[in-house]
Amino acid sequence: MDTQQEVLLFVKAGDDGKRYGACPFCQRLFMILLAKSSLQQLQFKVATVNFAKPPEIFRKLTLRRVPALVHGETALDNVDEIIQYLDDTFQTPSLDYDDVDADKCCRDVFQKFCYYVKDVSKDPSQLDAELAKKSMRFWRQRTSHYLCGDQMTHLDFELLPKLHQIRVAANALKGYEISPKLRHLWGYIARAYNDDLFTQACPPDQEIIVHWAEKPETPNLTMEQKARLARELPKYSFDLPISSP
């Protein structure tokens, strides 16, 4: 495989069928490519896919979902397979980690968010408890910038997009706010907001809101609300609560 060939990452298109959409798995792979390209001659391009009218190369390669990756003769549309391929083909920097406690820390929180935002659970107490548990039991004990050290690893690329979508979507659709008292959790999020790997790959708030509003059982948006979001300039909630670090 000629590693100098350009990598093409297909991601979800936004509400207008063209802009960058708000799939957390797409952001995860976008961040990995940014990290891999920072230390070696990896060139990549990101293209959006509107499934009503997918790009010709996407159809020709019989890709079925996003995120999807094309590199030379390789075409993949399974997230785990894409990550393994990138690690095998572009080994620097290594994004691997070996931290059982950190791995446990990433479990459950997104599931609790999905239950809450989809109205499976109308009470946010389980989500509150899961976020508080992670803040107190894990980040309070860490001196590193990220979950497994001072540089992001695969675990951060998995968790941070989800945390950000919890913040934006739960607030817009359910009026939920991550407590500013969770200072250690907010400190972790703040470091991501100051890292180009996160901000360059982050979709705008409007797309995150629409992405979740269109899910089954979630509070939907009126046509007027969707039209207003479409007219707005892209917004990114990278601010912090006043009492957080």
TrEMBL record:
Gene Ontology annotations for the cellular component aspect, listed alphabetically: apical plasma membrane; cytoplasm
GO molecular function, one term: chloride channel activity
Pfam families for the chain: CLIC-like_N (PF22441)
Compartment annotation: Membrane
Chief subcellular location: membrane
Domain CLIC N-terminal residues, every copy: 6-93
Topology relative to the membrane: Single-pass membrane protein
UniProt keywords, alphabetically: Membrane, Transmembrane, Transmembrane helix
Keyword Manganese: no
Keyword Transmembrane helix: yes
Family that this chain belongs to: Belongs to the chloride channel CLIC family.
Protein name (database record): Chloride intracellular channel exl-1
Organism, as annotated: Caerostris extrusa (Bark spider)
Gene name as annotated: exl-1
